[in-house]
Amino acid sequence: MKVLVTGASGFLGAFVARDLAGAGHEVTGLHRSDSRFLQRLAGACAVTLVRRDLADVGTLSGPFDAVVHTAATSPAPGIDTARVVRDNVAGTAALIADAERWGCRSFIFCSSLSLYGVISRAVVDESTPIVNPDAYGATKHLCELMLADRAGTLPSLSLRLPGVLGPGAHRNWLSGVAARLLAGEPVRAYHLDGPFNNAAYVADIAALARRVVSRSWTGFDAVVLGARGEITVRGAIQRLAAGLNVVPNIEEQPVVKPSFTLSPDRAIASWGYDPLEIGALIDRYAGDVLAWHLGA
């Protein structure tokens, strides 16, 4: 099967591209920049790497049977809302149009919990209301709406992702905790005794994508991903510290917003998602962090 993976220079995209190629698929990895993830991907397996913007995807030598769309632009210094909208919404619209033209059997979209905005429920699932998301979350919601509009012609699945962990993970809460632990800095957190499972392991997401691209279905669906089970916030910090062989300095902070856990039940029951238990995930991630810093 010919599969196009966008965001191949990113943490998740590179892992998914390598996993699909390892399963025997003919993978084209689309990227806009160089990265350590891309360098590892180029030397690991037979993925055809193409440097191109999403708006120019139509010039690729398709057609493709499936698309896994991991590429996205997040808010950061020097990146304004206009660019986030252009890259995430306009870029995805162009990609959807090309996927329809190619007659793709499946389109997997990597969305985000950010689309929910202000969360007041104790457990987040697919029925959780969307309330006042920020610009990034709003772009993810708009992309899902565009895919839902084409449910009759393009089978698609949106993965509402929490922080994704694995080798080289960055820009999420647990990766920030790992960096502070290794630097000997205090870890400041609130709801220390509240439940936590707000993470997904990169290999579990890649395995789900592998199952989905080989499956036939119709329509649009969106599912929440997360780890199995629960651990307290304090327990998560302590377990990660133990895996990194450091002693944590935990400082409790005033509560900023309500805590919540994730329910991946629909993803498990309907799509074969098989996530790690949260404690085992943290243990594996600790090993990833140590190996990554050693350059393994």
Keywords for this structure?
296 residues; alpha/beta; Rossmann fold; UDP-galactose 4-epimerase, domain 1; 2 domains; 9 helices; 39% helix
Q: Would you write up a description of this structure?
A:
The chain is of the alpha/beta class and 296 residues long. The chain has two domains: 2-165 and 198-224, 3-Layer(aba) Sandwich (Rossmann fold), CATH 3.40.50; 173-197 and 228-259 and 276-293, UDP-galactose 4-epimerase, domain 1, CATH 3.90.25. The chain is 39% helix and 20% strand. The chain has nine helices and 15 strands. It has helices at 11-22, 36-44, 81-102, 135-149, 173-182, 202-213, 233-243, 265-271, 278-293, and strands at residues 2-6, 26-31, 47-51, 66-69, 106-112, 123-124, 156-161, 163-165, 187-189, 195-196, 199-201, 220-224, 231-232, 250-252, 261-262. The chain has a seven-stranded parallel β-sheet with strand order 3-2-1-4-5-7-12, with helices on both faces. A two-stranded parallel sheet has the order 6-15. A two-stranded parallel sheet has the order 8-11. β4, α3 (81-102) and β5 form a beta-alpha-beta unit. α1 (11-22) packs across α6 (202-213) and α3 runs parallel beside α4 (135-149). The relative contact order is 0.13. The model has no long low-confidence stretch (mean pLDDT 94).
